[in-house]
Amino acid sequence: xxxxxxxxxxxxxxxxxxxxxxxxxxxxxxxxxxxxxxxxxxxxxxxxxxxxxxxxxxxxxxxxxxxxxxxxxxxxxxxxxxxxxxxxxxxxxxxxxxxxxxxxxxxxxxxxxxxxxxxxxxxxxxxxxxxxxxxxxxxxxxxxxxxxxxxxxxxxxxxxxxxxxxxxxxxxxxxxxxxxxxxxxxxxxxxxxxxxxxxxxxxxxxxxxxxxxxxxxxxxxxxxxxxxxxxxxxxxxxxxxxxxxxxxxxxxxxxxx
Length: 257
Ligand code: 48H
Prior knowledge:
By secondary structure, the protein is α/β, with parallel strands linked by helices. It has helices at 5-22, 35-46, 81-86, 103-117, 145-150, 173-181, 201-211, 224-230, 240-256, and strands spanning 25-31, 51-55, 73-77, 92-95, 98-102, 120-123, 125-133, 136-144, 157-166, 213-216, 219-221. Residues 31-37, 54-57, 62-64, 126-127, 167-171, 173, 223-225, 234-236, 242 line the site of ligand 48H. NAD(+) binds at residues 36, 55-56, 63, 127, 153-155, 224.
């Protein structure tokens, strides 16, 4: 049978359209497809929750691809090794508490695992605002990343969700929107973003977990965004904290849903 280009177009359009329609209302919407967002999406989907993830870039994976300074290996401490095992990611013992994994294997496995568990990923879509009501955040305002990049004046669309997870890494983009629209209301000591501090891996890794929490009604922070919001330090290319943070936010949300 001869292949028909129009049938190919029709298949893609119909299938993608279904994905969009099916995700207009979700239990959880995750912003950012780095390691913390992907792990959160995986565990939420595995627990049967309806969860979508929006990633600005064409590629999922955030800051994990490049390991440390483009040396494509990551370090993971012992306490997070069970999460590598959950995804079948191979690892090597380096010394004491330190393990390494190939960063490409790690991020591709997290991505495939999360999608196969039921997470719907929308790449090349940027979150530019939230939908808010007096009781808190109720949804996300989204647009095509190329529209954002080209600076085109195109109005966005909106999706409704019970909870949002800001997993946008150092940028804390969703939290920034909230601070701009309703200043002083975050559950941080100052009510505003405390700002990420300089490198201190040991302290940062523990704080990432503590800082993974609800920061505003309906909005959780996870991963690097959690530390940046609460004024924790950065940790460099050790990823246990990111993985454990995604797991923690998923566990908390599963309980609340
Ligand atoms: C859609 C967006 C938007 C938006 C941003 O940076 P990430 O990998 O995030 P984490 O927290 O899972 O992992 C952090 C880690 O990669 C890291 O940077 C570490 C450990 N650094 C330590 C150090 O010392 O430097 O991923 C965030 C993702 C990215 O892919 C962005 O493109 C995406 O979020 N994103 N997606 N809409 N408004 N803003």
